[in-house]
Amino acid sequence: MLPADCSRRLVAELRDALDACAERQRQLERSLRVSRRLLRTWEPAETPAPQPTPAPETSGEAPSPESTPSSQDLKELELLTQALEKAVRVRKGISKTGERHKALSLKSGSAATSATTASAPSRPSGQASCRVSETKPPRGIQQTVVPARGLPESRLLSVGDRTHMGRGSRATKPGPGPRDQQIPPSAALQAPEAFTLKEKGADVDCWLPQPLWKPCSGLEGGSPQSAASLSTGFPDRILLRLPMAYRKAASRNSRLWAQLSSAQTSDSMDAAATAKTQFLQKMQMTSGGPGSGLSAAAVEAEVGLLRTACLLLRRRMEEVLSADPADCMQEYRCLLTLEGLQAITEQCLHRLQELRAAVVGRQLGPWPVGRRPGASLPCGGGTDPLWSPQLLLYSSTQELQTLEALRLRLAMLDQQIHLEKVLMAELLPLVGTQGPHWLALCRAVHSLLCEGGERFLTVLRDEPAD
Amino acid sequence: MGRRRRRVDRGAAVGALPEAIAALSRTLPAGPSPEIFRRAKFDRPEAAPALWQLLFRVLSPLSADGASASPAQEAQVRAVKSELRSQGYPRQALAQLPEDGSQGSRELLLALAWLLARGPLLERLLAQTRVRLGDEIPLCECEALARPGPPVPRVEADGPVDIRHLQWLMGKLRFQWRKLITSQQEQCALLGKIHSYTRGCHSDRSLGHLSVAETELLRDAEGGQQLLRRLESENVCLEAALRWRRQELVFWRWMDTVLGTCPPEASQPTFVPRIPERGAGEWELVARELQALQEELRGAAEPRRAAWEARVGGWGPEWSAVQRASREAVGLELAALQRAWERGGAAAQPHGPCRLVKSDAGASGGPGLRAAQVIEVLRSREACLEAVLCQLQRQCRQELARLAGALPGLIWILPPGR
Lengths: 466, 418
What we know:
Chain A has 466 residues and is an all-alpha fold.
């Protein structure tokens, strides 16, 4: 048994570490839920009646998860796609004059065949929506599902997701015939159309009201509710578009952030900066508090810097010690480096003592709570902080996985190093004093400190043979 | 003529100040009206509660993020006082204000101005509550550390525990990390899929595909509305911040007058500081490390110096020039090393959250970091940390061997190496 105060501290540290890990796990689970939901395919719903009430529960999740479509459903899907095709042809006839609509319908003509939208029950609402769309010609309500450029069907099967894959491939099987015919003409049109659609700045917000989402809300004009149909799990590349209002807001947002970051350096800023420093100085002079300007937060930051310093110095020392000096000059340089490192270490120690004196002797406030003393290499943050995130380009999922795995490994190593130091500080003195069950303690401490708790050593009593 | 111009100037200034203050309070969370500021200059008590709340929201940004209802007045007052003290707020008068939050509006105004003057407070606050439109990963952990998680109510283990309990906790921790890594890999796979499926859908060409938040926006109209609202309100705050930046000079001149109305304080020691365990523990660890390093360096340098002196003892003056050159070179190297930690060394390291964008490998020369480079940097950091951990474990092994060697008659069979 360990002494009480030692136990308390160690258990607290380990529980802290567990809590930090659990917090990460919670956040990750949240993101996973969202991502899984997005990729889950929309099953054929059980009941045909589309719910007009905008109940959020019905709008979101598919009511019956993970049911595979039967052949009956597939037949209905095929009928649905044919109905949509027909609707599109009718629309094409109506809107022959507008060339924009022509482009749209050409696209959707090819695409609607592969618009394997959700289910038979959606057929009545689908037709209703088509009628709705006909009454609102300027709102090009079309589903644009563009088949993947030149990618063969096999691409569908190579993606490893079983649940939506099975459905996706089966669902699109009924429709390869008409689609194949349509692919060649549409393929040629894809590239320019993809971008002409976008360049025509008007609100070509595409959505097909789904029974699982709020179909009646689609009737409200002017709302940026282009919940474009994420049909059966992205079997192909889908050309969705974000609502105009969102796009405007997002671009304005990034522009404002850029302005804010660049506003740091301008003439008016200099005048304000001098006014600020003058104000701070005046405040310091007229107040009765600690005159040195040292605060607990600053002390903590400096201690952190000194920890980094120690690490860097040690790394340098090991480099020097492991290098084989080839000639006198290099030997001399090694010697000088070592002595220089020694001098710097002494400076750091001295500074640490000063900080200690400052904390004890002066009127510094309570230590800032809640901040874990971790981070082997804290970023100073001294460089210009970028207030809005920069881009990180990755090229494949493996790369992303490697990146994330490395990041997590760094956090784990950080934590391990911190725990190692704490355990060393607490447990080694205990081993030094021989108490009862010393051997068991020694063995346990060895495994905790030297093997990360993963392996154990064996102790044999060497009895002299009789 | 001059007098008229002066009057016009003052008139303009009078109009500019409320505008500036209005811009400021629009940017801050729970910002009070300019009238409150004006009353605070004259230390009116009715202005105090609003300012206490403002300071509380500003100083404890994320925990008071609406999840937990704002605590009672006394708790707020205490939290504000302690946080300001730990940041080094110089004025004593704040610490002496009553805890019911009914007085001291002028002092609070000064505190707010002090916080604003010291650093980019507004930008930092806005960045913390920024609407995240993309899939972001933080490249360094400094944000994660600075933001404490929600305090978990923990039952303190009061009594002494067996070391096996510690071993169990360590094992649990290892297992949790393994679970975390697998979940993370799954999330990456899903993200990759979503990014590649939505390629070509984003209006911003440099991004090229939608993020999870944007795809979610398309799928869930209700949530999309919420996101849009948050985005728009953030835009309003950003515009207010820009207005503030243009007009803040007026505010600082006014704050000078506010400071002028305060009587100067006499220097007086008030309380005995306490050093809580954590802070002291950290200090101890660093001190011990530095001392150990110093010992090692001394042990390495002294014999070399002795050997060198013995060898070089009689060498001539032409050596001294060479020696001086070496000394200078080494001096420069060490100075660069020192700068590396004094400046935080962050220049070379990627810092801050990054938005993930999936793009083909051929896209070079565009803005943004490349994952391959970041992976290299992270790998080198990993090697560094592993070296540190190995070295610590080696130290422990030596120490334990020394302690165990005291007892003869035992054979220690180490576990098979990695």
